[in-house]
TrEMBL record:
Protein's UniProt name: DUF3052 family protein
Taxonomic superkingdom: Bacteria
Classification of source organism: Bacteria, Candidatus Eiseniibacteriota
Annotated source species: Eiseniibacteriota bacterium
Amino acid sequence: MSRPRKGSDLIFFGAERWAALERLGTLKRSIKPNGAVWVVWPKDRRELTGNDVREAALAHGLVDVKVVAFSATHSGLKLVIPVARRKPV
């Protein structure tokens, strides 16, 4: 897995298990204040659900603003830093 670039506009992050979501803190520090992290995970699996991603996002100071059917087999959530918590660029 490659390291995210500091100051990224967007980061796409694939996760298959809850433990992978621990990286959200690092990913949050890598995006611009108005950037986003898209978390993509396999649909219909018990190991990880959309609610798990939302819970982990909140724990790392991120909120979800969009959900997508990324493909026939994967879902995605767009996570951002809440506007009130964004530091000026």
